[in-house]
Design goal:
InterPro entries: PP0621-like. This protein is α+β, with helices and mostly antiparallel strands. It has 2 domains: about 45 residues; about 40 residues, Wheat Germ Agglutinin (Isolectin 2), domain 1 (2-Layer Sandwich). The protein is built from 1 helix and 4 strands. The strands form 2 sheets. Strands 1-2 form a two-stranded antiparallel sheet. A two-stranded antiparallel sheet has the order 3-4. It is rod-shaped and about 95 Å long.
């Protein structure tokens, strides 16, 4: 009976060690894949600053906004008539 119990304990410890090693290997592979993807894709481009239109409130990139009197306007509501392109 004691031999059977000892065999069971040895098998349980061996199984636990095998699973722990397998988990560690999978974790290392995941980290390596993430590092490769980060190098391959590089950092994301910087986001454009968004500003609201003073008339309609819609947000648009600051580079596309028309400014006048300290306020930003979308092309549809730009002061001075028709939208500039």
């Amino acid at each position: 009976m004691s031999k059977l119990l000892l065999t069971f304990c040895v098998l349980a410890v061996a199984l636990w060690l095998w699973q722990a090693a397998r988990r560690k290997t999978q974790q290392l592979r995941r980290q390596q894949n993430q590092a490769r993807q980060a190098v391959r894709h590089g950092p994301p481009p910087p986001a454009d600053q968004m500003v609201p239109c003073a008339v309609c409130g819609s947000h648009l990139p600051a580079a596309s906004a028309h400014r006048q009197g300290g306020r930003s306007y979308c092309p549809e509501h730009a002061p001075g008539g028709a939208a500039r392109r």
